[in-house]
Design brief:
By secondary structure, the protein is α+β, with helices and mostly antiparallel strands. Helices cover about 15% and strands about 25% of the residues. The chain has one domain: Ubiquitin-like (UB roll) (Roll), CATH 3.10.20.
Length: about 90
């Protein structure tokens, strides 16, 4: 039996600094975007920026969402670095 998976994609600076554009992660019941961010940040080093002081922009299935959004197997979760501007 195959484990339920979701795809995590990284864009802009994250893709460069994390040296990857995507990961396949096991999905779990009740999992939120924030759960994914915390789990990835626990890898340490460059990954810790995902739970830094500045909020990460997130899309699930190409729709911008909040970090409290629940994900399910088959979803695509995309992380974008915070944007500055003026």
């Amino acid at each position: 039996m195959t484990e339920p998976m979701l795809t995590v994609r990284f864009f802009a600076r994250f893709r460069e600094e994390l040296e990857t554009d995507s990961l396949a992660l096991t999905a779990s019941d009740g999992q939120t975007v924030d759960d994914i961010l915390v789990g990835l940040a626990r890898r340490g080093g460059r990954w810790s920026q995902l739970k830094g002081e500045r909020p990460v922009m997130v899309a699930v299935n190409q729709v911008m969402v909040k970090s409290t959004t629940k994900v399910k197997p088959g979803d695509e979760v995309a992380f974008f670095p915070p944007v500055t501007g003026g």
